[in-house]
Amino acid sequence: MIGLLLLNRNSNKMKIRKIKKKAIAMPFNWIFALVAGGVILFLSIYAAGKFIQTGQQTISTETAARFISLFDPLETGLAAGKAQSITFRKKSKISFDCIEDYRFFGRQRLNFTEQTFGKKYGETGAEISIKDKYVFTGSILEGKTFYLFSKPFFMPFKVIDQTFVLSDNYCFYDAPRYIEDELAGLKLGNVFFPNETETCQGINVCFEEGDLGCQIIVYENQGYVSNRIYGERVYFVGDLIYGAIFSHPEIYECNVKRMKRRFDQLAEIYLDKIDIVKRANCESNVGPKLRTVIGDIGNSRELAGLYNEIEEIRLINDAASCKLYYNDRFGE
Amino acid sequence: MMQQVVSYIIMIGLESKMKIKRINKNKKMISKKAQLRIQEMSFMIIAVVLFFALVGIFVITIVYTNITERASKVAEEETLASLTALSDTPEFSCVATKTNCVDGDKLISLLDKDIYQTFWPFSSLRVIKSSGFEKTEIELIECTIANYPDCDVFNVYDKNVRDEKVIASFVALCRKDFEFEAYDKCEIAKMIAGTKLIVAK
User: Fold this and answer.
1) Contact state of A322 with B182 under an 8 Å Cβ cutoff
2) Could you give the CA distance from residue B16 to residue B18 in angstroms, rounded to a whole number?
3) pTM of the model
4) Could A277 and B182 be called an inter-chain contact, meaning their C-beta atoms sit closer than 8 Å?
């Protein structure tokens, strides 16, 4: 009996101890405050991160939009070429692509990003579309300074202004005199014409096959450029030689097709114009020949194949007393 | 003696039970207090979250307004830069080697070419001849192939956007005319391009 009573007493004591032990445990409100505080802190850091990310995207998008506005002053008008350069404070990366099937004239897209902390690139901005320009360039350009220049393209009337964006250095070996004169005249800071004894750091462009480690070989007489970096061959006619040298082959081919569509529309406009100027006793015989060259092309080789027809159009127009256009530099 | 011991133990037992009851009562009170604190804290947390959310919305509104303003400004700048270069593009440029000159004979055939709507970065594009400068919108005679060149305005295209800002640039407008022989007849004209403004909704 006594034993039972003592046992009961002990069990009561244990219960009291147990209750007392619970009372001195960490209060629930502390745990709650810690968890809630943690969640708020996490959400704040996440929101701040997102805010910075959005800010970077906004800046990159705005920079890309402002960058393409540099192309407008490069429209040549009557000039043979124009050039300028832009230097960013930080190393930047500009990506280009080209879509030939967008609406009728196709489009190009670019996006921009720049280095933030260390060598890491920040958030890439939204893609900016370019529809009324033909940018012959690499697919990804990296650097602080970007060189831009433009050259008109005639076929035989002016069709487009080719815009070039470069970031790499180019070393031209054995370049024909006219190319050296034209590019040197633009005072580009990244195109050099070394002789074989001079050293030049950059992409080697050769005009005849040699042992200079040429990445780009121009076969001027055959009318094509062999790009060893991408292992592709692209064809050119006239001033498209610069596009063939400085472009990524895919961007070049896409722009050539876009350019042909622009040519087709211009040809339609000139055909309409022939009928309109007839009212002013101005007869042009270009029409029938011009109609034969309208139509899509599959690649740059097909464009080069139209050279003879274009040359004939040029000769007909030159011989006419009332010219349909004057500004031809086709084949120069 | 035995009885005394038993009664003592019983008393201790009773005392312990009362203590337990008291502690349980205290526990219930503590629990109620804790619940009250949790409620207070929850309200506080909700208030803090709401405060930051409101601050966030306010900041986002300001930033977003700035973004739309900047986007509109960039679009306007692009329109202005494109417009000044437009007269020298192959679709508009004169036959003769003149800058800032629009060929009226090419312009008239551009009027029914809708594909250019997606090509140039303008929401609308028109060229008003000098004969239309003093006229109201209703008085202007729209150019067509049939009435060209006896007309006032070439409406190249109009996307009919709501928030539009227009920018104008003066150009020379030339066309072939005949008087004893064919010659280029030029006059002043106004090229007007519209930009769609980006408005915060």
Assistant:
1) yes
2) 5
3) 0.79
4) yes
